[in-house]
Amino acid sequence: MAEFVSDPGWRIVIHKCKAPETGYWGEVPAMPGCASQGPTRAKCRANVLEAAAGCLESYLEFAMQKLGAKGAAHTAALA
Predict the structure, then answer these.
(1) 3-class DSSP state of 8
(2) What is the SS3 assignment for 10?
(3) Distance in angstroms (rounded) separating the CA atoms of residues 40 and 42
(4) In the sheet where 35-38 sits, what is the strand order?
């Protein structure tokens, strides 16, 4: 059974692994491929949030490359 966790702006789904000794795995459905795991629900949640931050950083870098210098100026204004 999946557990839904709401963080500011994120919906995280945490699943119990089939083998009980392996813990939990979680995902952010809004970010395909953004997932992680952990031995406890709390550690899994923390790991998923860290993975989400990495995904966002990757998305930002990709956008900056696509937009070039014009995008960098807009991105700097947001920071």
Answers:
(1) coil
(2) strand
(3) 5
(4) 2-7, 10-16, 24-27, 35-38
How far is residue 35's CA from residue 49's CA, in Å, rounded to a whole number? Answer: 9
**pTM score, whole prediction:** 0.71
Written as six digits, the tokens of 63 are 């956008």
pLDDT, one tens digit per residue, over 1-31 is: 555 555 557 788 999 998 877 899 999 998 9
Query: Quick check: 39 and 52 in contact, CB under 8 A?
Result: no
Report which residue type is found at 38.
Answer: G
Residue of 6, 22, 5 whose CA lies nearest to 14 = 5
CB-based contact 23:38 (threshold 8 Å) = yes
68 three-class SS: helix
The encoded tokens of residue 73 equal 């100026």
**Using CA atoms, how far apart are residues 40 and 76, in angstroms rounded to an integer?**
37
